[in-house]
Design a protein that fits this description.
This protein is α/β, with parallel strands linked by helices. The chain has helices at residues 122-131, 144-148, 172-179, 181-194, 209-218, 239-247, 267-279, 308-314, 371-375, 382-390, 394-399, 410-414, 421-437, and strands at 27-29, 35-39, 49-50, 57-58, 63-66, 75-76, 81-90, 96-104, 158-162, 199-205, 225-230, 262-266, 285-291, 298-303, 324-327, 334-335, 349-353.
Length: 438
């Protein structure tokens, strides 16, 4: 075992990983729902605009919405059928946003793929990644073509593949590492060709022994690829944590990994890049974990735009009365109001929980125990920042480092007074961003 492999960051927590329910379950495919919904903003950046209209006939792989802005990513249909409506629909956050609704004809007729050119320049690879609609599939949703567009390809020293998957319950990336190993390595080769001076580190927490063993065996003769075992600790998969642990370089909220010679992508993103560059295939499906004590645990691949309600029905419905639904992991995911919400590019899971543990506890007065400070991976003093947040003092929030919060939830998790610190910090960061736009 390498000396570097079990290094970790300061702070963090050790929640029960709850991965035993799905880690040994192969990915199964689920067809799209009868009605498929595509919100026009599924990425960080400028929202797309529809380029289709009601009653238009659509094929799989057809671009249905896009933007001329550089920081944006096209929306591509995962089904064939007819545009039924263009209207506001609720997204995962509970907000209404303009969406394209397609009536799925079940035929999955595809757009012809006529571009089979294999010898591609750096610029042509970037263009394929952009055209494929690829964004960060680990949840951030930053357009991948933007992240990979650098002035000098030699400035990239490290390409980090994030296979940590540190959120409890989630195992979709773990299954991808086991089931699509060759595609993952092929995608890494695509990227190393784009960045000739870079070393690739595949970062995996040490509770994923099978994936570590398999990838080390596959990469044993690779001179520019190394598998790095990381200590199992949340939020080990955070971008800043990975860069610090693997390279020793420090990031803050005003920096990008590229500022210190790094690029970070998660496992699913690298596989999507391989499909786009080598086979000219767009991003039209998502691999997700379905878990919790209220539903049949599964790892699934489902067309983007499919209804969460449909997914639950295909898995046999809920096993008992469910009190809480979460899209994403329990630490950083979003609680769902209902299931009439579509899968998007950044959907990673659906958790159905019989008990809402958070609602069992009423927040009480801070006892100044300092636990929140001990676990904060950004080295902040959450208790102090929380007091500022309750007063909506954005200036003091910034001065005390509030914008450095990565919203991981470690402070709220460890707080014996059950104070909703993370939610308060999210609200303050939003207020700061609104004020900047004024």
């Amino acid at each position: 075992m390498e000396v570097m492999s079990l290094k970790s960051f300061i702070g963090g927590i050790h929640p029960k990983d709850q991965k035993q329910y799905t880690k040994d379950l192969p990915i199964i495919k689920i067809k799209a729902s009868d009605e498929v919904v595509f919100p026009l903003k599924q990425h960080i950046g400028v929202p797309c605009q529809p380029i289709v209209k009601v009653k238009d006939e659509i094929k799989v792989g057809q671009v249905i919405a896009c933007s001329d802005a550089f920081v944006s990513s096209p929306i591509i249909s995962s089904v064939s059928g007819v545009v039924k409506k263009i209207e506001e629909r609720m997204d995962v956050s509970g907000k209404m946003q303009e969406s394209i609704v397609i009536a799925n004809d079940g035929l999955y007729q595809k757009v012809e793929n006529n571009n089979n050119k294999q010898e591609l320049t750096y610029e042509e690879k970037i263009e394929r990644i952009k055209a494929a609609g690829i964004v960060g599939l680990g949840g951030a949703g930053f357009p991948t073509h933007v992240k990979l567009s650098v002035k000098d390809s030699n400035q990239v020293q490290y390409y980090i593949v994030n296979g940590a998957e540190c959120e409890p319950y989630l195992t979709s990336d773990y299954r991808l590492m086991l089931e699509k190993t060759d595609e993952l390595i092929a995608g890494i080769h695509v990227l190393l060709e784009m960045f000739p001076k870079a070393l690739c580190y595949i970062a995996i927490e040490d509770n994923k022994k099978e994936a570590i063993h398999l990838l080390k065996e596959k990469c044993k003769d690779e001179k520019r690829i190394a598998v790095k075992e990381l200590k199992t600790k949340y939020p080990q998969g955070g971008e800043r944590m990975l860069v610090k642990v693997l390279t020793g370089k420090t990031l803050n909220s005003k920096m990008l990994p590229l500022d210190v010679g790094c690029i970070v992508d998660n496992v699913a993103t690298v596989i999507a890049i391989n499909q786009a560059v080598r086979y000219n295939q767009p991003l039209i499906s998502k691999v997700m974990t379905i878990s919790g004590d209220g539903i049949t645990p599964s790892n699934i691949e489902v067309p983007i735009g499919t209804s969460f309600k449909w997914i639950v029905e295909q898995l046999g419905g809920f096993k008992s009365e469910v009190q809480k639904l979460i899209c994403g992991g329990p630490m950083m995911g979003s609680a769902l109001i209902h299931l009439d919400i579509p899968v998007t590019k950044t959907s990673s899971s659906l958790l159905a929980l019989v008990q809402d543990e958070v609602s069992l506890f009423e927040p009480s007065a801070c006892i100044r125990c300092g636990r929140c400070k001990d676990v904060c991976p950004s080295l902040l003093v959450p208790q102090k920042i929380y007091q500022i947040a309750t007063k909506n003092d954005t200036e003091a929030f910034i001065l005390n480092g509030g914008m450095e919060c990565i919203e991981c939830g470690c402070c709220s998790y460890t707080c014996p007074a059950k104070r909703n610190m993370t939610q308060a910090f999210k609200k303050m960061k939003y207020l700061v961003s609104v004020n900047k736009r004024k």
